[in-house]
UniProtKB/TrEMBL annotation:
Gene name of the encoded protein: Cenpv
Species name: Pycnonotus jocosus (Red-whiskered bulbul)
Alphabetized GO MF terms: carbon-sulfur lyase activity; metal ion binding
Alphabetical UniProt keywords: Metal-binding, Zinc
Keyword Zinc among record annotations: yes
Protein name: CENPV protein
Residue ranges of every copy of the CENP-V/GFA domain listed in the record: 53-165
Family statement: Belongs to the Gfa family.
SUPFAM superfamilies recorded: Mss4-like (SSF51316)
Length: 180
């Protein structure tokens, strides 16, 4: 009203004005907290166009969503486990990944340093995502477990996992791929 001075928002709060309805609808539609929404939108602005991919295991017991580019940078590792599983994956920060269902249907396999958490469905055995040793603060997502329609291109980069320490120390960007 005229003559009434508006109080500034509380510290840490942002006055969204006319956009508050859009903000709330976006949060509700995607099931995100205020902080998750802000992080996602800042990431989208800072890192380019992100899209929501959905995916899961073969039997459907495990489902997830991940915000990433439509143009994926996929790693093809030749370490012992990636070779046996034919594990190809792209890496995202944990803030861009959300498990939608199936937490109780996941089991984990570790070996060697036990830093990588190889999660897979107890029912069908498919690993649709995991926590990579190179990026324990993020997720490695199997692009072949994504639903159709959101991936435009895939660029594959070979990683010499047989000499893991050397390969990771020489790679210029892999450790930063899980940083928001």
């Amino acid at each position: 009203p005229a003559g009434v001075k508006a109080e500034p928002p509380e510290p840490g709060l942002i006055d969204l004005g006319a956009q508050s309805g859009r903000w709330a609808a976006f949060q509700e539609k995607h099931g995100l907290s205020c902080e998750e929404t802000a992080r996602l939108l800042l990431d989208a602005y800072e890192y380019g166009r992100l899209v929501k991919h959905t995916g899961g295991c073969h039997c459907g017991a495990v489902r997830f969503e991940v915000w990433a580019s439509a143009d994926l940078h996929v790693f093809n590792c030749n370490c012992s486990i990636c070779t046996k599983k034919q594990n190809r994956h792209f890496i995202v920060p944990a803030s861009r990944f959300k498990l939608l269902k199936g937490a109780d249907n996941l089991t984990t396999y570790t070996f060697n340093t036990h830093r990588a958490q190889h999660t897979f469905c107890k029912t069908c055995g498919v690993q649709s995502f995991y926590t990579p040793r190179s990026n324990p603060d993020g997720y490695g997502i199997a692009p072949h477990c994504l639903d159709d329609g959101t991936v435009q291109t895939i660029i594959t980069e070979d990683i010499n996992g047989k000499e893991w320490e050397k390969a990771i120390s020489e790679h210029k960007t892999i450790r930063n791929m899980s940083k928001p």
